[in-house]
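Look over both lines before class:
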Amino acid sequence: MSSTVTIPQVPHGLQYVGASLLSTVFVLVGQNFTVSKWRKRAGIKYPQMYAEKAEVAASRDALIFNCAQRAHQNTLENIPIVYVTTVLTGLKYPILAATACGIWSVSRIAYTRGYLTGDPAKRANVVYIFGSISMLGLLLTSVYTVGQSICSSL
């Protein structure tokens, strides 16, 4: 008894989706190094997640550590959405998915740099706004892609 396994054709451009997803790893690693650097400078010991109010009042390094930690945490909170929507969008529109994910990665760098000024209001800059728009675009396009796939299989 023999059986045949058919593999669906991989869309042209899917390698760019892989590259854009890999860019998020570099963002996370960079944020991790930044948090570690400021943790050491501020003297915040593990497992303490953030510097206490008194530590922040006594040290600008503790404030910057809190800002770096929050930027990294916010990226971790959003990364599952970016991963899922990039992959789903990439199945039908790989170039669009890769571009949007790449823009999101660049926006997270700008977000982190803005946060590291010590003024959290500076985290939301123009580049960050483009990243938010690209994430919304990924969400809408992934919903459309999945909906199209479900409708065509009925």
